[in-house]
Write a structure and sequence with these properties.
With about 50 residues, the chain is mainly alpha-helical. It has one domain. Helix content is about 60%, strand content about 0%. The longest helix has 26 residues.
Amino acid sequence: MHEPREAPSNPHSYHRKPTGTGIHNSLIMKWLTDCCVPVIRHHCENGHF
């Protein structure tokens, strides 16, 4: 069994992954902004750092 491959006529599609990675990164950034930043700011304001 051969694994499916991208069409050789489009070499860029072989090197570049789908935009799902960009969406994943944006979700990570959103999570960091929504969850971590308020916590860090809270600790900084209360002098824990």
